[in-house]
Write a structure and sequence with these properties.
Blueprint: H1 2-5, H2 14-28, H3 31-39, H4 46-68, E1 74-76, H5 80-89, H6 96-116, H7 118-125, H8 128-149, E2 153-156, E3 160-163, H9 169-186, H10 192-204, H11 240-243, H12 248-272, H13 285-302, E4 307-309, H14 313-318, H15 325-336, H16 341-345, H17 349-364, H18 375-391, H19 394-411, H20 420-434
Antiparallel strand pairs: 1-4, 2-3
Helix pairs in contact: 2-15, 3-4, 4-13, 4-15, 6-12, 6-13, 7-12, 8-17, 8-18, 8-19, 9-10, 9-17, 10-17, 12-13, 18-19, 19-20
């Protein structure tokens, strides 16, 4: 084992890698509660989604470890799960079985693109400013969903939206949880999100909501034998994309979201772990993207949205993780968590909503990477970041961003400098609008 993961070559130890694995898991374990909360809004069985989330994450972690020896953990991604639930299923009205099919085929397409090396070229076709805008916009979208779930933001017929009842127990508890997450993260305490969620859920046992019941329901048990994946396993509408061609634009957005999420995370974490070569390139990028693609299709078969590399892997890297053994530890802990689903399922929205807000805020930090020296890039990034949450649509936010970029570049006389594939992407979106 030690020779496979090359501890000595990477100047690490078994103890350090194990600690790094626990640190990464603590930082990203919130997905076990947040992902089922989001996907259950589509009608999917909560317990089955908890199982699917844990098993898909474990498989993704093991694949990354064995194929690349990188300390990068995978799980169903934030942002894409919101797109899956609130846009694809609830917004477009697709059955969740059809949405899982789109995720599955998205993984197959990405597997082909990763093996061929085309995935990297596709990433280069999206302007840097737009990439930043997409990431920040998804973050703001997630934060808006969290604010709504916590009751901090509510609908209003006169002002469109407004603040909720700020003195209500649920809102006060959610705000306290958000502040706690921020404070713990500022102090660089590993697992800040999960720690805060546990505290909130515990407090909810003693705080009553507006209906008189406690905010957190008392779980029937702490642990139990896993009930299995029967409600979601192999429930895909396998041929949906081939019988409903209008779904291709949804697949395209899933492709784009998965592309930027995985590529950005892998590059960012690998740089912090000093895994890049002297030229600044990641030697096993194609293998890492291949592991990501396989995990996505596997996750869809199990019953969850897109599986992707998690930026929280950086927490493990900061704790000393340098090899794939860190990911093996994370995957093992996810499997162990399948016995704790009664406890996880009892976590209320007042505990998970602050996590959504906080993760959205973290994603919004990408705005610092906007190429501010290029006016067209800056405007494109900012407009896209605003459009996604305000349109309540990642699809239309991405589309308007691409089209705006092309218009501004052509008007500035830079048409010849634009990647030809960027024109293709823009033309596809224009065609979608044209045909309704």
């Amino acid at each position: 084992m030690l020779s496979f993961f090359k501890f000595e070559e990477n100047k690490t130890t078994l103890g350090r890698e194990t600690l790094a694995g626990f640190t990464t898991f603590a930082a990203m374990a919130y997905i076990l509660a947040v992902n089922p909360m989001i996907l259950s809004s589509t009608g999917m069985d909560t317990q089955a989604v908890i199982m699917a989330t844990a098993v898909a994450a474990a498989i993704g972690c093991f694949l990354m470890a064995l194929m690349t020896n990188y300390p990068i953990a995978l799980a169903p991604g934030m942002g894409t799960n919101a797109y899956f639930a609130f846009v694809v299923v609830i917004g477009y009205g697709l059955p969740w079985q059809a949405a899982l099919s789109l995720v599955f085929w998205n993984g197959i397409v990405f597997l082909i693109l990763s093996i061929s090396g085309f995935r990297k070229k596709l990433a280069e076709a999206i302007p840097p400013g737009l990439q930043v805008g997409i990431q920040a916009g998804i973050g703001f979208f997630i934060a808006l969903l969290g604010l709504k779930a916590a009751g901090i933001v509510i609908a209003d017929p006169n002002t469109i939206i407004t603040h909720g009842i700020m003195t209500s127990p649920a809102v006060l508890l959610a705000l306290a949880g958000l502040f706690l997450m921020c404070i713990l993260s500022a102090k660089k305490i590993p697992g800040a999100i999960m720690i805060s969620m546990i505290i909130l859920a515990t407090c909810g046992l003693f705080v009553a909501g507006s209906d008189g019941t406690t905010l957190t329901a008392t779980p029937e048990s702490i642990a139990a034998i896993p009930s299995g994946l029967g409600e979601t396993f192999l429930q895909l509408d396998w041929l949906y994309p081939f019988t409903n061609l209008s779904a291709l634009k949804i697949m395209f957005v899933l492709l784009i979201l998965d592309l930027f999420d995985s590529v950005g995370t892998i590059i960012g974490v690998s740089r912090r772990a000093s895994l890049v070569d002297s030229s600044g390139k990641l030697p096993k990028m194609d293998k890492a993207l291949t592991a990501d693609a396989i995990a996505t299709s596997t996750g869809a078969i199990l019953g969850t949205s897109t599986v992707t590399s998690f930026v929280e892997s950086a927490a493990g890297v900061e704790a000393g993780g340098r090899t794939g053994f860190t990911s093996v530890v994370v995957g093992s802990l996810f499997l162990l968590s399948t016995f704790l689903y009664p406890l996880i399922g009892a976590i209320p929205s007042i505990a998970t909503a602050p996590a959504l807000i906080f993760v959205g805020l973290l994603m919004g930090q990408s705005l610092r990477d906007i190429p501010y020296d290029d006016f067209t890039e800056t405007i494109t990034a900012v407009f896209t970041a605003l459009a996604i949450p305000l349109f309540f649509s990642i699809t239309h936010g991405l589309a308007i961003g691409i089209i705006l970029f092309l218009v501004m570049q052509i008007a500035a006389g830079k048409a010849a400098k634009i990647n030809w594939m960027t024109y293709v992407i823009g033309a596809i979106f224009i065609a979608f609008y044209a045909i309704g």
